[in-house]
Amino acid sequence: MSDMFLEIIELDDGQIALRRADSDDEPIMKISFSDDVREQMDGDCIDIAKVMLTAGIHMISDLNVKAASEIETNEEPAEEAPRTIH
To answer: Which domain of life is it from (predicted)?
Structure first.
């Protein structure tokens, strides 16, 4: 499998986006902050978005490893309970 290189960019409308580095296609993910939050963060929006996107990438990687492990051991994927987000 080939590696996918990603880049974090700021779009013209101020959103922070994650996209493939070798493509100008639609971003994979976007993060937007309200004007009030941008004002409170005093220019740190990009750094905060980087942390958020990095955490998401790590979680996706962990889920892919788990899924591959289940395939190798012929395990049935566990049924998930409904998710509650607080």
So the answer is: Bacteria
Task: Match 């929006």 to its residue by tokens.
Answer: 45
Give the C-alpha separation, 30 to 23, whole Å.
Answer: 16
Predicted confidence at residue 1, as pLDDT, reads 47
Q: Which one, of 69, 54, 83, lies nearest residue 46 by Cα?
A: 54
Could you tell me which residues come within 8 angstroms of residue 9 by beta carbon, excluding any fewer than 6 positions away?
16, 17, 19, 27
Q: Per residue in 23-79, pLDDT tens? A: 888 998 899 999 999 899 888 988 999 999 888 888 888 888 888 887 777 766 666
CA–CA dist 16, 9 (Å, integer): 6
Provide the residue type at 39 as one letter: E
- Edge-to-edge strands of the sheet including 29-31? 6-10, 16-20, 29-31
